[in-house]
Amino acid sequence: MSVVIDIMLLGLMGITAIAAIRMKNLFAAVMLTGIYSLLSALWFLILDAADVSFTEAAVGAGFSTVLMLSTLMLTRSAEKPSRHSPILPLFVVVVTGAILVYATLDMPGFADPEAPIHTHVAPHYIEESKAEIGVPNIVTSVLASYRGFDTLGETTVIFTAGVGVLLLLGIGRRREDGDE
Amino acid sequence: MTHHFILRVITKLLIPLILLFALYVQFHGDFGPGGGFQAGVIFAAGLVLYALVFDLDTASEVIKEWVLLLLAPLGVLIYAGVGLTSLYFGGNYLDYNVLAHDPVHGQHLGILLVELGVGITVASVLTTIFFSFAGRGLRDPKEALKKSSGDRDAGQTS
After folding, report:
1. What is the pLDDT of residue A141?
2. ipTM of this model?
3. What is the pLDDT of residues B23-80, one digit of tens each?
4. Which single residue of A118, B8, B94, B143 could bond B83 by disulfide (Cβ 3.0 to 4.6 Å)?
């Protein structure tokens, strides 16, 4: 049963991705990327990554779709026809994809208990976090405590992104400008 | 935007629930899925929904832009301040064990404060980003609509 759901979700994600690429109407393309995010949130949920799924649903399907739509207000709603021949980009993508697929052959099998990622610090987090941190959600204790430096860095990145957008676009600047 | 009567009523019903859910995700992140980042996004989504259904000027009456600009660095400072506090109490940077007499209580306090910092920064930065994107296009939705139907294909409306 779970295999059927896996295949259906991944199939739908594939179809949505291809449809989003082929779509010339940007509004529809934005909507399709939102659907894609929602599907990948479901996919993360099936992989038992509830926190990641939560983030993907809120940011990918919700917030970034709204941002794309408000950007769309500033541009045209249809894609410009491309003047380049698609041969060279296709070649680059196929070669890069082939290298990536080749690289996955060296990866440990899916959910292999002997994989390096499961034998390094993960056992310590899983066994000791109850006694050391005392927080039931191990994801939170890893994010906020064991990996506190990383999360501080991420928060700073978000802050920097906000500063960047403010420097480029400003906030509420148009109110005085009126009609240009 | 005087139409959309149903949208406005439903939005008014939904927004308190969204903001409440954001706070739940924020403070319940230790026990269930969630945490500062998700809570911040959900809180910002509530404000963005308000700005979409009503208009941007009304939304910036609800939360003033200078408040957002104050809150964004405040979150980072709370986070970094927790680190400095643990240095002050003789631990390593961001070592929450020293924040209370019992190391586990210290960890709880540290995680709570740090997640609060993340939530404040994420919520205010995302709202700021939306306000600055939308501020260029749909400050007045009616005018923007006129503009977009008029010269959408003539060129960029900047």
Report:
1. 86
2. 0.81
3. 999 998 888 888 889 999 999 999 999 998 888 888 888 888 889 999 999 999 999 9
4. B94
Q: Give the DSSP per-residue string, B91-127.
A: S-TT-GGGGSSSHHHHHHHHHHHHHHHHHHHHHHHHH
φ, ψ (nearest 5 deg) of residue B33: -60, 145
Flag whether A56 is in a domain: yes
- CA B52 centroid distance within chain: 15
User: What predicted TM-score, i.e. pTM, was given to this entire model?
Assistant: 0.82
Inside any domain, residue A18? yes
Residue A163, CA distances (Å) to A149, A156, B82, B119 in order: 21, 10, 23, 17
> Which residue type, as a one-letter code, is found at position A48?
D
Quote the domain boundaries for residue A23. 1-77
The residue ranges of every structural domain in chain B are 5-139
Can you tell me the distance from the alpha carbon of B93 to that of B85, in angstroms, rounded to the nearest whole number? 8
Confidence check: pLDDT of A67 > 60: yes
Contact between B30 and A135 using a beta-carbon 8 Å cutoff:
yes
B25, B137, B143 ranked by CB distance to A74: nearest: B137
List of residues 6+ apart from B72 with CB closer than 8 A: A159, A162, A163, B120, B121, B124, B125, B128
Chain B hits for A58, CB-CB cut-off 8 Å, are 38, 41-42, 45
Radius of gyration of chain A (CA): 22
Give the C-alpha separation, B50 to B130, whole Å. 12
Q: What is the 3-state secondary structure (H, E, C) of A142-159?
A: HHHHHCHHHHHHHHHHHH
Q: Is B130 on the interface with A (CB under 8 A)?
A: yes
**Would you put residue B60 in left (φ > 0), alpha (ψ -120 to 50) or beta?**
alpha
Phi, psi of B41 (to 5 degrees): -65, -45
Whether A4 and A71 share a structural domain:
yes
Q: In chain A, which residue's Cα lies nearest the Cα of B79?
A: A152
Q: 10 Å Cβ neighbour count for B78? A: 19
In terms of pLDDT, which residue wins out, B138 or A89? Answer: A89
